[in-house]
Specification:
Layout (H helix, E strand, L loop, with lengths): L2 E5 L25 H10 L4 E5 L5 H13 L3 E6 L8 H8 L5 E6 L12 H7 L8 E4 L6 H9 L6 E3 L13 H11 L4 E5 L17 H11 L4 E3 L12 H12 L4 H16 L2
Parallel strand pairs: 1-2, 2-3, 3-4, 4-5, 5-6, 6-7, 7-8
């Protein structure tokens, strides 16, 4: 089974979605399962994992409602306030929603030190008892903080979204590579092959721009901990669904058939317990 392990749904709201500025006008639309279904079919993808884009339980419930109506959604990475006093109660509630596989916080937008805050650490510490995963969304310069964060939770399943957003546009590699190497040393940390075209020059990238970054994550994480994700519809800023998928397929063409199957679905099924 082929799984797109990272995409988003929303009904566009200018106030809530203020992060979508004029340079991202293609995203100022509704993106729903009926829009994604023919794209997945065309590209021979069997299902997807819907990932939060808004930091609210309202959106998590919205994703659950969509999943109840569309079988292409195999799992949900939602949002819950992991810093709240009520987090244990909320996790108990979501543990009864079988399509909720884990949670994410948009840490890339938080100040330095956020991952070390006692309230957030307390919330993260309660995920494993429910077998919830956690998606790490950061920029490359936040890797040192993430490494210290991950050290605290050897029994928690983590996945790094978008390869930790390396600076592909400026072909910067060294510090990012060192950080990813350290992070990959923790066998409970996985990595998504997602979001890479939007970290390059949107209208001027070349396939070769991604090769050194793909090679590095393959070297550090191996085929057994790499997970394909499109980041649709955000990928549309820089590539069609087909083009970003082709980049991934070109990279994994050197792998064995069994390794390809893992990256394109098997690893997502194992990680998220789909």
């Amino acid at each position: 089974m082929k799984i797109d392990a990272h995409q988003h749904f929303w009904k566009y709201n200018p106030q809530r979605d203020a992060w979508i500025d004029d340079s991202m006008s293609v995203l100022k639309n509704d993106f729903l399962p009926d829009h994604l279904a023919p794209v997945l079919k065309e590209n021979k993808i069997d299902g997807c994992v819907a990932v939060q884009a808004d930091q609210s339980e309202t959106e998590t419930e919205f994703l659950l409602e969509l999943a109840s109506q569309h079988s292409l959604i195999k799992g949900i990475v939602g949002w819950v306030d992991l810093r709240a006093d009520s987090v244990a109660h909320r996790l108990d509630y979501f543990s009864n929603q079988k399509l909720i596989k884990g949670f994410r916080h948009i840490v890339q937008g938080e100040p330095a030190g956020f991952l070390g805050s006692s309230e957030f650490l307390e919330g993260i510490g309660q995920l494993a008892k429910h077998n919830f995963t956690y998606d790490i969304l950061i920029y490359h310069h936040q890797l040192p903080e993430v490494i210290e964060f991950v050290k605290r939770f050897p029994n928690q399943k983590f996945v790094v979204d978008h390869m930790a957003k390396p600076d592909i546009k400026n072909a910067t590699l060294s510090n990012w590579s060192k950080g990813m190497k350290y992070l990959a040393a923790f066998d409970n940390v996985w990595c998504k092959l997602s979001g890479f075209t939007t970290e390059a020059a949107w209208n001027a990238w070349k396939v070769e721009d991604f090769t050194p970054y793909f090679d590095e994550v393959q070297k550090h994480f191996g085929a057994g901990r790499l997970i394909y994700g499109s980041d649709w519809p955000v990928c549309l800023l820089s590539a069609s669904y087909k083009r970003q998928l082709e980049n991934t397929e070109l990279f994994i063409s050197k792998f064995s058939d069994s390794e390809k199957e893992k990256i394109m679905g098997g690893n997502a099924i194992d990680f998220y317990n789909l």
